Task: structure prediction
Amino acid sequence: MMRPIAKPDLDARTVFDTCTAGASPKTVRTSLQALKDTVANAATEYDAAATARALHTFGKFKDQPDGVPKKTGGINKQLKNTYTSRMVHKRSAGRTFYDQLLKEAPDGRCALCGQGIADTLDHQLPKTHYPLLAVAPANLVPACRDCNYYKGEEAPTSAEKQTLHPYYDSEVHDHTWLVARVAGPPKPSLVFHAAPPPEMAPLLAARVRHHFTTLKLARLYNPQAGPELRNLSRSLPRLPANMIPEHLRERAEDWAASEGVNSWQAALYRGLAGSPWYTGGGYEEPWK
Ligand SMILES: [Zn+2]
Result:
């Protein structure tokens, strides 16, 4: 699930300045460099809005400075190019910043799903709509291609429709909300859900559900269960039957301590430990 990362220790103005200092032709460079204050200001306001969990209120920066959505040409296009040509491009001036942000991916994995390989940066607010944030470090999150694709170019339209932000929303793991329900008999399988508990703040709970649905995380986590279940069908029969629920609970606690309470592994073992059918022999079913 979403993996918290410390907010990047990179100054938005310095990053933008470095990326654009060598832009060509000179007319483009001059117009980009003239935007340094505007870009720095947008990054400061972004930080305040993200801290307040209110990136949906960032509307005044939408389509700025051109003021026109998806305009071809114009300075907005150059701002977006600043990301692709002046930061992502291997030999570009900003590539070291790109690499620095990407290497913060936990275990090299996507910060949005915790599972896919992080091989890109996702714009938390899409650069299509927020060109001023195209290279703002706090808006760039190490992510996998799937999450980047599913998140797409959508900007949040309400507080509830903000996906979780790895730099700002670590509190979301103060509660356990990833649940795996055991399906069976005849054959065990697991279906993952986002099920925030009633004591969780309603806004965070809504965002958890939105994040889970938008990134199609059930599709990603459900198939992880297969190898675990096959492995358990071999190891569990070696234990005394009355020890099995406790054994699975301990595995759930170990995963929660090492990977987080909302890791799919912790959810999977919680789900199995809580299923009387599974612990009572369901673990053997598919192999008989
Ligand atoms: Zn991902």
About this structure: Strands lie at 120-123, 140-143, 178-183, 189-194. The chain has a mean pLDDT of 95.
